[in-house]
Known about the structure:
Layout: H1 12-16, H2 24-43, E1 45-46, E2 55-56, H3 58-69, H4 71-86, H5 103-106, H6 110-128, H7 135-160, H8 166-173, H9 178-199
Antiparallel strand pairs: 1-2
Amino acid sequence: MTSRIERLEGTLLEAVSIREDLSPAYRAVAVLFVTVLTIVAAQVSIPLPFTPVPFTLQPMIVLLGGAALGARLGMTSQVLYLALGIAGLPVFAASPVLPQGFARLLGPTGGFLMSYPFAAFAAGYLAERGFDRRYLLSVVAMGAALAIVFACGVAWMAWGVPHLGLATAVRAGLVPFLPADIIKIFAAATVLPTAWRLLR
């Protein structure tokens, strides 16, 4: 009989579960776990003097969490993260100038934060179709999802924040992060194929 691990479609969450049908409680715990990881990653924050956008590990968690959980659950984990932030809990990256709560979404980093559910959905959608099984396909999946983060973040900085403009938004929200985030893509792309090999 072909095991779930050997199927082309499916997520890592389904593969590691010991039951054919994941219970609602099991799914809820997995979603909450990724949400908590996103909160923890937000606290690993390095402010940069030339941009209001801090350097954090959040994008890597968003991409990996989305790929591991699948499109729907991955998106849910990030919607929950944003909901906790909007409710006023200190889940966003610490900043001396950017507020916690709903006001953070209206500031220069709002586009990045609001992109997380969509980026997680994209990573999960591609993972459900086997993109997380091979390294090069995993790079494509991680890169596509991260492109959503940058596109939303830069667009919001350019047109959602007064008096910035596209050129300034690209300089402040894209260029400084590209080298490190390219490394993140290749690093993240190794995690899930490795996990699948270990499961086999």
